Amino acid sequence: MPERNFFDLHSHLLPGIDDGCERIEETIACLKQIQAAGFVGSVCTPHVCVSSFLENTPAFIEEQLQRWSTIVEREVPGYQLWTGGEVRISDHCIADLERHGIPTIGPGRCVLVDYFGRHWPDCGWETIEYLQSEGFQPVLAHPERMDFNDEEWQAVIDRLETLGVWLQGNLRCLAGYEGSLALARGMELLKSDRYRIIASDLHGTHALDERLRGLNAIEATVGEEQLHQLLHHGPKEVLGLAG
Ligand SMILES: [Fe+2]
């Protein structure tokens, strides 16, 4: 396999702190599997501002990475890990971020946000505006999974892009395992070159092979060069490592 040097900027690798990996053994198994697929680094992005995981503050997430760093270095030598967070948009997330701090995707100024709901909420626009006013670059996770009707979905994506929000696609959606709507919307964004990055959003060893099949789907659709852009150059830019 040629040198891929991919970076995965959205993953639930830190064990036991959200709905991702449950134990460090599972984390290590995931890392070995994605390393074999050509990844050289990951950002750990546990859920943040989600009612069931309110203890996931930037300081706590950093502490958790430190806690496991020795065993990761021993088991998966040379693999780079950074901290981040996946900020759930809600009517209380700005207050949570002001209280606990804003988790960036690794060392850069980008912040991963996600949203689940039937309609895009006013607090979604407010959260984007808040992050930008504080000097951060918002990155919306898996926009293809937002299942608004076509008219609303197109309008929200268009406005987010106009506002300068970057879009992150999910490998599993592009492999077709998240339903036909997510696949169709994901392929539309991929073919029209509207994704800044693609990431795994892995939650453990479960379905990791399905996620990794997304790499083949991307290459088959837009070619190897664009695959490299979305998994190497784009992520380096988000991490602030480009240049
Ligand atoms: Fe996620």
Key features?
about 240 residues, alpha/beta, TIM Barrel, six-stranded parallel beta sheet, three-stranded parallel beta sheet, 9 helices, 9 strands, binds fe (ii) ion
Ordered list of secondary-structure elements with their pairings:
Blueprint: E1 6-11, H1 24-36, E2 39-44, E3 47-48, H2 58-75, E4 80-83, E5 86-88, H3 93-100, E6 110-114, H4 122-133, E7 137-141, H5 150-163, E8 166-170, H6 171-174, H7 180-191, E9 197-199, H8 208-222, H9 224-239
Parallel strand pairs: 1-2, 2-4, 3-5, 5-6, 6-7, 7-8, 8-9
Helix pairs in contact: 8-9
Bound molecules: fe (ii) ion.
Fe (ii) ion (FE2) binds at residues 10, 12, 86, 141, 201.
**N- to C-terminal separation?**
25 Å
Output the helix-strand order. Answer: EHEEHEEHEHEHEHHEHH
What's the CATH topology label?
A: TIM Barrel
Q: Could you tell me which ligands this complex binds, including any ions or cofactors?
A: fe (ii) ion
How much beta, percentage-wise? Answer: 15-25%
Strand order of the largest sheet: 3-5-6-7-8-9
CATH architecture: Alpha-Beta Barrel
- Give the class-level CATH name: Alpha Beta
Specify the helix fraction band. Answer: 40-55%
Average of the residue pLDDT scores: 96
Please report the total strand number as a whole number: 9
Please compute the radius of gyration using only Cα atoms: 17 Å
Q: How many domains comprise the coordinates? A: 1
Largest sheet: 6 strands, parallel
CATH level-four homologous superfamily name = Metal-dependent hydrolases
Shape: globular
The count of helical stretches stands at 9
> What structural category characterises the helix and strand content?
alpha/beta
Uncertain segments are none
